[in-house]
Amino acid sequence: MSDRAKVRVKSLQEWLEVNVWGLLIATALVLSVGGLVEIVPLFYLKGTMEHNAFPEIVWDKAGQEPIVTVDEAGKEQWNWQPGDGVRPYTALELAGRDIYQREGCYLCHSQMIRPFRDEKERYGHYSLASESMFDHPFQWGSKRTGPDLARVGGKYSNDWQRQHLYDPRALVPESVMPGYPWLDTTAADPDRSLRVFGFTLWPAGTGSRMQRHMEGLRHVGVPYTDADIAAAERLLDGKSEMDALVAYLQVLGTMVAFDDAKAYRE
């Protein structure tokens, strides 16, 4: 008699213990059901996004007026001011966000302040879901080799940020962060073709790469106006990747003017 024949299965648990494929399928089913039970309600519960109860969290002119316009002389005119509410990123900030992802900054820095006293005292007001409503993908992260960056905007000057990105240990001797000196000499939005698997999707000279990026984001619900997209080339003209990344870092956490008297999350 074989060893398999000697095993008498008395219950479903015992059967799963001796059947590896059955155990894998059962585990997948249990995790799927548990995940769906936790995630699906978030799509229809109004309390998931705080701006449903506190509309001032979101800029009321998003999708109606351009965030910033640039005239022929290169002068910027802002329609949004810090504290006006969550809005889409400008072309320069969006380019910086792309660089942030490309360089893997999210692997060492989170952008999610939890509602714990120690985190609020160190980093600031706890993060809200509505603050990430225009992020595709969000940058919450799961590891903090370096500090959380959700509220880093305005904490340091532009010059400090540039120097820190160029040579972190010149400002923070104990830092383990690598330097990014090449960002200073690389254009933020070069006019180059986009090739995927050997096929040219967009040849060089067919418009700003960032404009195409913003068009794509508009298709998934980010409320960019035509003027926002049209301003991309002028906003990025002559800007380096260093300029873009600093612009992105400096806007983090500056969009919402929090009221300490309000409980945004119960």
UniProtKB/TrEMBL annotation:
Signal sequence: where?
none
The EC number(s) attached to this protein equal: 1.9.3.1
Q: Which residues cross the membrane?
A: 20-45
Gene3D superfamilies documented for this protein: 6.10.250.2250, Cytochrome c-like domain
Q: Which GO terms describe its molecular function?
A: electron transfer activity; heme binding; metal ion binding; oxidoreductase activity
Heme: present as a keyword of the record?
Answer: yes
Q: What class of enzyme is it?
A: oxidoreductase
Tell me the SUPFAM superfamilies matching this sequence.
Cytochrome c
Key words, A-Z = Heme, Iron, Membrane, Metal-binding, Oxidoreductase, Transmembrane, Transmembrane helix
Q: What are the Cytochrome c domain coordinates in residue numbering? A: 91-253
Q: Which domain of life is it from?
A: Bacteria
**How is this protein named in the record?**
Cytochrome-c oxidase, cbb3-type subunit II
Q: Which organism is it from?
A: Allochromatium palmeri
Lineage summary? Bacteria, Pseudomonadati, Pseudomonadota, Gammaproteobacteria, Chromatiales
